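assembly run, all chains below
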Amino acid sequence: MELLEILECSPPLARKPLDAEQAAGVARVFKALGDPVRLRILSIVASRQGGEVCVCDITGAFELSQPTISHHLKVLKDVGLLTSERRASWVYYRLVPETLGELSALLNVPAAV
Amino acid sequence: MELLEILECSPPLARKPLDAEQAAGVARVFKALGDPVRLRILSIVASRQGGEVCVCDITGAFELSQPTISHHLKVLKDVGLLTSERRASWVYYRLVPETLGELSALLNVPAAV
DNA sequence: AGCCGGAATAGACCTGTGTCAATATAGATG
DNA sequence: CATCTATATTGACACAGGTCTATTCCGGCT
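ok done. output:
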């Protein structure tokens, strides 16, 4: 997954201006975070004891159709924020803490100049 | 600016699921970060010695029209990531490190469970 | 006052995207 | 095999958003 590579190699924003390619890679992830439903999904997964959540639990937390939730899960998965695993009839989603951590580091601008 | 309040009161994602209102507030900021041009603008400002950049310098760094850059600056300003100050004919933009810091903290998920 | 340059705003256009209903797929179970 | 439940995919639609041109606004200068 090349996104993680970009993130891992990216110094904080203040280090030096991002080039177009780096910016495009990082923007994909932030764009995924730029939706309230996806943020809530992410926080549901993140705060879940055991670290994984069944899709049905997520669907139940929203007044949105099942395909809509499935769509959002796919977006989060595609940018490397979540992974999924099927067990029997159910699919479980987990955080990818590395991705979140890299984003966090990227935004961690040193104190005012 | 109520956004900062939301951010300041928000524990990390893993603490407990965001409610709809919190998620909407935070999503606004991430949405602003979810564009490559805006990320580059932000990194230009962040990496600038002295902490401020004239609009003309930003415009010069892209092959985009001046109104387009102005639009992106407005988006970043509206969500509290930048502030601006007019001096004579020029307008200078600065980071709001608090906002970045809060986002960084929000994403800072504790190590795997 | 009039002009000039830097920056912001307005409006139009086109693409991207969040949502849904309908359908398909996967696995379990009778 | 038939069927049921859980999840994913497809296609359609409406709205949001990035970009441009044209215009306006704001300071400084002559």
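The radius of gyration of chain B is 15 Å.

The beta strands of chain B are 52-54, 82-87, 90-95.

not gonna interpret more than that til we talk
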